[in-house]
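no rush on this but wanted to send it before i forget. theres a chain ive been looking at and ive put its sequence and its fold in C-alpha cell form underneath. please have a look and point out which stretches look like helix strand or loop to you. thanks a lot i owe you, the record is right below:
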Amino acid sequence: MSAENMEVRWFRSQFSAVVHLYRDGQDQYGQQIPEYRERTELLRDDIISGSVSLRIHDIRPSDDGQYKCFFQSSVSYEDAILELQVAGLGSAPAISVEGHQDGGIRVVCRSAGWYPQPEAQWRDLQGQILPSASERISQEANDLFQAEIAIVLTEESNQKVFCSVRNLLLNQERESEISIAELFFPRVNPWMVALGVILALLAVLIPLASYCFWRQHRAKDKLQAELRWRCAQIYTVDVTLDPDTANPWLVLSEDRKCVRLGVKYQDLPNNPKRFDKYAIVLGTEGFAGGRRYWEVEVGDKTAWNLGVCRESVSRKGEVTLSPKDGCWVVWLRDGEYKAGTSPLTPLPVSVRPSRVGIFLDYEAGEVSFYNVTDRSHLFTFTDTFSGTLHPYFYPGRNAGSENVAPLIICPVPAQAGGNLCP
C-alpha cells in the first residue's frame, strides 16, 4: 500500500520524542528532538509500495535502544518496533613503561573509543590470562569508553605479553604486545634496602608525629574557644525585639523574644526606624560600651542572619551587610555559613549550630560568634566601634516551610564567673 500520503513517524520511548516525521508529502522538522537534527534522512524510493527506511548519520552511543515506526492514514494506523544496537571498535592499545614497582617494571596499556564497555586483559604467549595490577574502564564525555590496565613484569616472569581489548557485542578485539630486556630490571642492593626501610619508617613516623601535634594543638584551640565562650556568657543581657524597627513582613511574639516571616504584608506605620525593604528587626537594647552576650535559637532553619549594627544604619531601601556600612553579621544561606567581610569569609562548620551565641566587646572592638551546640568559635570581627550598636536579626526568606520557623532569643544558663575569665 502506498504511504506517500500517510504520516510516517519514527520516535523513541514517547510519541512526542520525534526522531523523524514525514507528513503531507514532505519531511517535517519542527517537532524533531534536538539530538537528531540534521542527522536523519527518510529514504522514500519505494514509498509507493509502502516501504520507507530511516537513515541516521553521525551515529552516537546515545542512539542505542528502541525505535518505533508509525504509519497513519485517514482510516487506519500501524506501528512496528526496532531495537538498534550501537557498537564502536576503539583504538589499537598503546603500551607504555611507567617505572619500577614491587621489584619489577610497571607496564600500562590504554585504548579509547569503545562502545559498549569493552573487556581488557593481559595474556601470555600461550594465551593464558595474566592478573592485572590495576584496571580502570571509564566513560568519557562523548559516552565512549576508555580502558586502562596495568601489569608488573618481573625478571623471573618476563616474557612477551599481549594487551587485548575486546568488544563483546561485535566479538572483535584489538591487540598490542611488549617484551622488556633483562637489563632494564632493577638489581637489589643491601644498602638500598636498608635505606628504603629507614625511609619507610620515617614516612610513617613523621606524619604520625605531625598528626599527634595537630590533634594536641586542635584540642588546645577548642578548649581555649570553649573557655572564651564560657567567659562571654558571664556578660549575658536580656535582649528583646523592637517592633518599631520590624519590617511589615515580620511577626513578633507578645514577649518580643521570637520573630518569623509572616504570610502577608502588615499595614504598619512607616516610621523612620522601620526597615521597609528587607525582613530585618533590631533589638530594643542599644550598647555604647561594655561587654554584652546573648543567644539565639536557629533550629533547623536553612537561612538566617545574626549580628549587630549601628543605630544609624540605613532603614530604607538597600541595606549593605558590611562593617564599613555599620553591620557585623554572619549568616547561613544555601547550606554555606559566611561572615560579612569584604570579601566574604566562608566559615568551616563541622557541627551544624542549632543555637548561636553573640558576644560584643565594645572597647576591644570585637564581635564574636559561637556555635553553642558544640561550644566552638565561629568567627570574630575586629573593628573600631562608634555610636550605639543594636542586635540584628533576619529570619531568612520565605522560600519554604522550614524558613517559616522563628528565630528565638533564648535565656542563657547562669555561669559561675571563674577566676580564669579576664
